[in-house]
């Protein structure tokens, strides 16, 4: 989900590319980034629909999260945020409660095995404070009442290109290949206030496994298990299939692409998640209400008018 | 009354004489505002309240702990063995039901002797010659060693029960290599067959294949037999360029330089970023079957074991995803006969992915079909039990969720779905009982 298509923005001096630093080492946009939700499609409602799987039947496969109880999911969020909320577009927010309830619905509907939740925003650690569903590992960039800062400005583009925390995680991930045995604990151990300029947090009380056993590749890289099929036409005992600890997984990652974030804003009240059904009902009610109000108004005006002429 | 500084034009206007200034009108105007507010209250109430219909919680709770049970009647014919049939039958029934109770498979097996009327269920026939145990349809021909024919002892009963148990409730080891290989049940699957050339420009490539006739010849019997459970949609494609995301290890095999895929390589073999292996036209789960032809630079390509020694297998399964066969130095056109061994592997991989149990080691099938009715029935029972359990859990968690999140609307569609699911579950548990009576 990319609300702001920076790569294809006309003000981007390097069309089709997003660089994580002023040196322009790696192109984050790459050749095979797939953007499923872009621009104004990125709404709180759509995000929660993707998570919970409540979709119209006509929604195509690429816009769905087709996971089951054996899938590991990585959710990365960034943007402007504050105490227990994150802004979507310029007109709505998702609150920590919304995400927590969405994850609970996912758990009850068996849509995940494990979730790795990462958020980079001001006061990010408040966003995962409301989670209550099992098997979620969460990490955020900054404490409550603490800002997350951008990493550096690219003077050619004229904007800050990446956040400190995301930059740090990216640096770490660049050193990991698909067959790496690095664990989550190793990632969290590299967190350093001097480099990130905020205090990143980790929440692992809901997570069932030891962080030293949880591999980075459990959530990244599309690594699956493989079992060698014994040859068919030989009469010999099948060799024992190789075993790997990685569970089968799917990594629908939100591409790393953060704008800079600064000011915290006020907490808005808990947003209701409305089902499709209720939406259409609500529309009907709304128009009914409007017509009734107009009818009463017209009645009143007519009544006063008739009085006046008398 | 007149306004200061303004000239008086004839008559003095008395405000109390203006129609809209009369006390009566004023009161009515104010009252009408309140009337609007009052009339709007029920409307406002209706429009802002969340629609939460009550779900049949008690019926769902009644399901908890309930398992579907399959009463099986196996008919025993032991005329070839000089021993009382009913005694054997009773003994086997007892051993079997003790065994199955532990497994929690929901089976209630009763073995009956041959004197019953016409039957449609399973039959086991004891033979005295020492040949192998043979399965045919729902029949099992079980050989008993000669010396046991005089007394049908405890060990024979045990052996008989073990074979029958492995057939009606295959243990996990017989289902597939590991419990996680099989995909979750879906009523529809897409099978996507891909002939994937790493680099056809290198010269080592298969450019076409007789896929339609091969599927027809090699897989159709399996697919037809499984059609009671699943509906298959098949698609196929040939790709001419499919780079690997890693470099294969160089190994020496038969005194020549070859290339190998280590166990780690296999886990990241599928280059999901660059390969498009299936169309995304539907949301059905996809099972992938890939023939991978390495480029000349990586030819021949073998699968290595943990010690980097070449294995004699050229295929592997990615659990719940599909199967991959590596084909070294193929012909440019793969005919039906060229694809014989490949599709043999695909068939066994399909069986593993769809959790078709294999026969126990000491039993063979003399059928032409891909697998016997014993296996199919065991699979259907397994899937039924899984689905029954899953639906029960889903219903329970919906109730839990609705109670937990008080802002969640529960509309008529949700209520209807829950009721439909409940009646479907009731029907499922009833129909298995009814089936028994019709036998």
From TrEMBL, chain A:
The keyword Signal applies. Pfam families: Peptidase_C13. Residues 233-264 are annotated as: Disordered. Gene3D superfamilies: 3.40.50.1460. GO terms for biological process: attachment of GPI anchor to protein; GPI anchor biosynthetic process; proteolysis. Pathway: Glycolipid biosynthesis; glycosylphosphatidylinositol-anchor biosynthesis. One of its GO terms (cellular component) is GPI-anchor transamidase complex. One of its GO terms (molecular function) is GPI-anchor transamidase activity. Signal peptide: none annotated. The keyword Signal applies. It comes from the Eukaryota. Belongs to the peptidase C13 family. This is GPI-anchor transamidase. It comes from Meripilus lineatus.
From TrEMBL, chain B:
It is found in: Endoplasmic reticulum membrane. The keyword Glycoprotein applies. Its main location: endoplasmic reticulum. It is a multi-pass membrane protein. GO terms for cellular component: GPI-anchor transamidase complex. It comes from the Eukaryota. InterPro entries: PtdIno-glycan_biosynth_class_S. Keywords: Endoplasmic reticulum, Glycoprotein, GPI-anchor biosynthesis, Membrane, Transmembrane, Transmembrane helix. GO terms for biological process: attachment of GPI anchor to protein; GPI anchor biosynthetic process. The keyword Endoplasmic reticulum applies. Pathway: Glycolipid biosynthesis; glycosylphosphatidylinositol-anchor biosynthesis. Pfam families: PIG-S (PF10510). Belongs to the PIGS family. This is GPI transamidase component PIG-S.
């Amino acid at each position: 989900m990319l609300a702001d298509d920076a790569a294809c923005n006309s003000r981007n001096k390097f069309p089709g590319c997003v660089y994580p630093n002023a040196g322009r080492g790696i192109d984050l946009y790459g050749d095979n980034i797939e953007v499923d939700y872009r621009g104004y499609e990125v709404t709180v409602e759509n995000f929660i629909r993707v998570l919970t799987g409540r979709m119209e039947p006509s929604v195509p496969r690429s816009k769905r999260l087709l996971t089951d109880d054996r899938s590991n999911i990585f959710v990365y969020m960034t943007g402007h945020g504050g105490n227990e909320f994150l802004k979507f577009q310029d007109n709505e927010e998702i609150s920590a409660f919304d995400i927590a309830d969405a994850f609970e619905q996912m758990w009850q509907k068996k849509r995940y095995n494990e979730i790795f939740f990462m958020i980079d925003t001001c006061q990010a650690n408040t966003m995962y404070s409301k989670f209550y569903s099992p098997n979620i590992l969460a990490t955020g960039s900054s404490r409550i009442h603490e800002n997350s800062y951008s990493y550096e400005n690219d003077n050619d583009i004229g904007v800050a290109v990446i956040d400190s925390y995301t930059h740090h995680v990216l640096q770490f991930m660049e050193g990991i290949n698909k067959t790496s045995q690095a664990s989550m604990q190793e990632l969290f151990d590299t967190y350093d206030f001097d480099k990130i300029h905020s205090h990143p947090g980790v929440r692992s009380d809901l997570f069932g496994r030891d962080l030293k056993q949880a591999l980075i590749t459990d959530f990244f890289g599309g690594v699956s298990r493989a079992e060698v099929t014994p040859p068919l036409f030989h009469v010999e005992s099948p060799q024992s299939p190789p075993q790997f600890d990685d569970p089968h997984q799917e990594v629908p990652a939100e591409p790393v692409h953060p704008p800079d974030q600064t000011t915290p804003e006020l907490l808005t009240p808990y947003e209701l998640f409305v089902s499709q059904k209720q939406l259409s009902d609500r529309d009907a009610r709304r128009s009914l209400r409007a017509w009734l109000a107009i009818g009463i108004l017209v009645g009143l005006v007519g009544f006063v008018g008739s009085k006046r002429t008398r | 009354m007149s306004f200061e500084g303004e000239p008086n034009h004839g008559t003095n206007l008395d405000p109390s004489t203006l129609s809209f200034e009369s006390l009566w009108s004023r009161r009515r105007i104010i009252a009408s505002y309140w009337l609007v507010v009052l009339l709007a209250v029920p409307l406002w109430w209706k429009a802002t309240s969340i629609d939460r219909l009550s779900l049949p919680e008690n019926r769902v709770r009644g399901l908890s702990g309930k398992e579907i049970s399959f009463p099986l009647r196996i008919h025993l014919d032991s005329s070839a063995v000089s021993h009382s049939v009913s005694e054997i039958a009773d003994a086997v029934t007892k051993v079997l039901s003790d065994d199955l109770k532990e497994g929690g498979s929901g089976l209630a097996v009763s073995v009956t002797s041959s004197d019953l009327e016409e039957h449609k269920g399973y039959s086991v026939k004891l033979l005295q010659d020492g040949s192998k145990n043979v399965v045919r349809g729902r029949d099992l021909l079980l050989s008993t060693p000669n010396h046991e024919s005089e007394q049908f002892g405890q060990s024979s009963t045990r052996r008989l029960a073990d074979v029958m148990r492995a057939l009606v409730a295959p243990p996990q080891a017989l289902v597939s290599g590991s419990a996680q290989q099989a995909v979750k049940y879906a009523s529809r699957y897409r099978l996507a067959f891909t002939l994937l050339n790493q680099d056809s420009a290198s010269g080592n490539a298969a450019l076409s294949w007789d896929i339609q006739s091969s599927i027809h010849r090699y897989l159709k019997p399996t697919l037809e037999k499984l059609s009671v459970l699943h509906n298959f949609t098949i698609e196929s494609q040939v790709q001419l360029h499919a780079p690997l995301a890693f470099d294969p290890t160089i190994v020496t095999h038969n005194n020549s330089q070859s290339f190998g895929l280590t166990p780690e390589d296999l886990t990241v073999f599928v280059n999901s970023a660059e390969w498009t292996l299936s169309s995304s036209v539907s949301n059905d789960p996809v099972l992938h079957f890939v023939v991978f032809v390495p480029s000349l630079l990586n030819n021949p390509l073998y699968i290595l074991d943990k010690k980097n020694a070449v294995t004699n297998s050229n295929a592997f399964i990615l659990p719940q995803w599909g199967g991959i066969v590596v084909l070294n130095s193929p012909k440019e056109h793969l005919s039906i006969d060229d694809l014989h061994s490949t599709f043999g592997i695909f068939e066994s991989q399909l069986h593993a992915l769809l959790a078709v149990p294999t026969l126990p080691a000491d039993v063979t099938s003399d059928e032409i079909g891909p697998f016997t009715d014993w296996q199919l029935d065991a699979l259907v029972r397994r899937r039924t039990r899984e689905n029954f359990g899953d639906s029960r859990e889903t219903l329970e968690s919906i109730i839990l969720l609705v109670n937990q999140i008080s802002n969640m609307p529960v509309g008529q569609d949700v209520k209807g779905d829950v009721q439909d699911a409940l009646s479907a579950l009731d029907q499922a548990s009833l129909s298995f009982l009814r089936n028994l009576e019709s036998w």
